[in-house]
Design brief:
Blueprint: E1 3-4, E2 14-22, E3 28-31, E4 33-34, E5 48-50, E6 53-61, E7 64-69, E8 77-82, H1 84-108, E9 111-117, E10 122-127, H2 133-148, E11 153-159, E12 175-181, E13 185-188, E14 203-211, E15 214-221, H3 222-243, H4 250-286, E16 295-303, H5 307-316, E17 322-330, E18 333-338, H6 346-356, E19 360-363, E20 367-371, H7 375-384
Parallel strand pairs: 1-4, 16-17
Antiparallel strand pairs: 2-3, 2-8, 3-7, 5-6, 5-8, 6-7, 9-10, 10-15, 11-12, 12-13, 14-15, 17-18, 18-20, 19-20
Helix pairs in contact: 1-2, 4-5, 6-7
The structure holds zinc ion.
Residues 94, 98, 179, 189, 191, 193 line the site of zinc ion (ZN).
């Protein structure tokens, strides 16, 4: 049974121990005592070194703790060091979670049903009434107030049968480890925590997300909150510089610009159609009638979008006795438009031509469009038309 040093001292970062068991390859070791926290209760494992070799993962195997190493080490006494930056970050996030969960329960009857401490941010899932941004902001404000009060966070051990007033009843039997925030919260927990709420640092709530019957609340504490606020500021500042606007005016500025861009796009579309109508008419007037008095135009583009030619085709074939064919080399595609009196069903004709060339497409009697696999097939369709 491994003696868990972190149970009584979360601040212990260097310790010596003895190897009591080892995997055959020597890369998994079991110590008589350890300060390495194994993944459990939503908190990830610690990293660091044992005899100078990197600890890659720490796992809880009920009565003992397995340390997975980057290389094998010889058996015997070992000196161990915890990666303190990672551990302290976990202590800030984890204690911040206790505080936030307690405030959510106290003020809004929201029960924390799960906790995840992630690499970038952490989440709690809250059961109870729906959580909107107003409630989240109030929880954030109350939690930070208790941070500023620097209330003691203490750990003590008590037998399960004597324990009362836990925020969340524990199903464990025997001795429970109880983590308390002075005059606020008592939770059964095996994780690592700071000694006073001030050490949690700022608590920042971010995204709210509905997950089944719960609300998932994303949050960051301590150094993470400062890093996140710095990144948010930098992003907002860049945006503000683009608009040459003060930071606080960015949302209104973006909304105005977006509206202007939409109106501009609408006006552009209308002008494009107007222009196409003129171009179609002009093309008609400058095209000499051929056999049977029919004006035929065929346009060929290397690449682009046939959609851009539709309006011209429409305007051209709005005049009597007109046939308009447009083809695109890449991707190989074709458009056929005819006037009402041309005596041709564009949809039927193009469909037949496309089928013979292994392509697909269709349309109505006046306008049709389709595509084929390659240039050779495109030439066959155009020859047919
Ligand atoms: Zn805890």
């Amino acid at each position: 049974m491994t003696d868990r040093l972190y149970y009584t001292d979360s601040y212990l970062r260097n310790f010596s121990a003895a190897i009591v068991d080892q995997s055959p390859d020597g890369r998994t070791v079991y110590l008589d005592r350890t300060a390495f926290y194994p993944t459990s209760g939503g908190q990830p494992f610690d990293t660091g070194t044992i005899s100078g070799v990197a600890v890659l993962e720490v796992a809880d195997e009920d009565h003992r703790i397995a340390h997975h190493l980057a290389a094998s080490i010889p058996t015997g006494p070992v000196d161990c060091a915890i990666d303190w930056n990672r551990r302290f970050d976990h202590m800030q996030q984890h204690t911040g979670q206790h505080l936030l969960s307690a405030v959510c329960t106290e003020s809004f009857a929201l029960k924390t049903v799960s906790f995840h401490l992630g690499a970038e941010s952490s989440t709690i899932d809250l059961e109870g009434p729906p959580v909107d941004s107003r409630i989240a902001q109030e929880c954030e404000r109350l939690a930070n107030e208790i941070v500023f009060q620097n209330r003691p966070v203490s750990v003590h051990f008590q037998h399960a049968s004597e324990v009362q007033d836990l925020r969340k009843p524990s199903e464990r039997e025997g001795t429970l480890r109880i983590v308390s925030i002075d005059s606020l919260d008592r939770s059964a927990c095996g994780g690592t925590h700071v000694l006073a709420t001030g050490e949690i640092g700022p608590i920042l709530i971010r995204k709210l997300e509905k997950v089944r019957q719960t609300t998932r609340v994303e949050f960051v504490c301590g150094a993470r909150a400062v890093r996140r606020a710095r990144a948010d500021y930098d992003a907002l500042l860049k945006t503000a510089q683009l608009f040459s606007a003060p930071l606080d005016e960015v949302p209104a500025m973006v909304a105005t610009q977006l509206e202007a861009a939409r109106a501009g796009e609408k006006a552009r579309r209308k002008l494009e159609l107007d222009l196409a109508a003129f171009q179609g008419k002009e093309l008609y007037e400058t095209t000499a009638p051929g056999d049977g008095g029919v004006r035929r135009v065929s346009q060929r583009l290397e690449r682009g979008n046939l959609e851009d030619l539709r309006a011209i085709a429409q305007s051209f074939t709005a005049q009597p006795q007109a046939v308009f064919v447009a083809a695109l080399n890449d991707p190989p595609s074709v458009l056929l438009a005819v006037s009402a009196d041309a005596g041709i069903d564009a949809g039927k004709l193009l469909k037949t031509a496309l089928q013979e060339a292994g392509g697909r497409g269709g349309g109505n009697a006046r306008m049709a469009q389709g595509s084929v696999a390659d240039r050779a097939a495109l030439e066959r369709v155009l020859a047919k038309l």
